TrEMBL record:
Belongs to the PdxA family. Homodimer. GO terms for cellular component: cytoplasm. Transmembrane segments: none annotated. This is 4-hydroxythreonine-4-phosphate dehydrogenase. The gene is pdxA. SUPFAM superfamilies: Isocitrate/Isopropylmalate dehydrogenase-like (SSF53659). Its EC number is 1.1.1.262. HAMAP family: PdxA. Binds 1 divalent metal cation per subunit. Can use ions such as Zn(2+), Mg(2+) or Co(2+).
Amino acid sequence: MTPVALTCGEPSGIGPELAVKARAALGRALPFFLIGDPRHVPGPIAPIADPAETLAVPADRLPVLPHTFAAPAEPGRPDPANARGVIDVIARAVDLAQAGVVSAICTAPISKKALKDGANFAYPGHTEYLAALAGVERVVMMLAAPQLRVVPVTIHIPLAEVPAALTPDLLEATLRITHAGLIRDFGIAAPRIAVSGLNPHAGEGGTMGTEETMIAEVMERLGREGLQLDGPLPADTMFHPAARARFDAALCMYHDQALIPIKTIAFDEGVNITLGLPFIRTSPDHGTAFDIAGSGTANPSSLIAALRMAAEMGAARVHD
């Protein structure tokens, strides 16, 4: 069984603590190892020299592929000297994934400010850096839980800028990447995708906005190619249980339209997935939590869910 690589993320955040807790919860049932500095891990570890050694590590120890950082890590106080190490660990995980020695990458949270302050990190976040490392021009963010998968077409921009950013090209690319990802990484042969409108009541026939005309045109064109798309739908009636049963993923036009329902339904189990990469990447849906780092109170549920989903997607992709 090929293991999952877990990057350490910001070592002064809750990532190292969560890695230890995830190992304690999962044991050897789900083989994963941490890439990071052993000094930063607050629990029993077993250094490994090769990912394949993960399978032989006792269940009560966290396998760690050592990556030396410039400085120790003080919980809650990121050290700029460690920024380069955080970045290099991500690149190392990508190298392992592209070499086929890990089934997937799961990334612990980073601090974008710490990376910018310490290493002049030029990317808005994890996702964009991973895309650059993979040589991929466009990727898609999916938030997933057992009850729901959602994809926002536009992500971290002001709401006032969404109508201009919501172009036919962006919508089409997002639909195609989502459709392909559901087939390749989730094993769904004929994905059903529900597509929201932008405006209340999906525009109410043009009386509350006209963006739905463009959305419908893109959907009709892709529908002629065989994609199973439903919409544009009013976003306020897309997420009750009976509606969710009719689709495999919901495509929403902006950030909150997608994230409010999944965080309401599965706040602690939501997983961030990057579709469109040549390898699998998942991440817990939370940040570094500097305010509680080192307290021992961090909840590992989202990281455990992210590791499980990474392993499941890795298995689906292998057997595609």
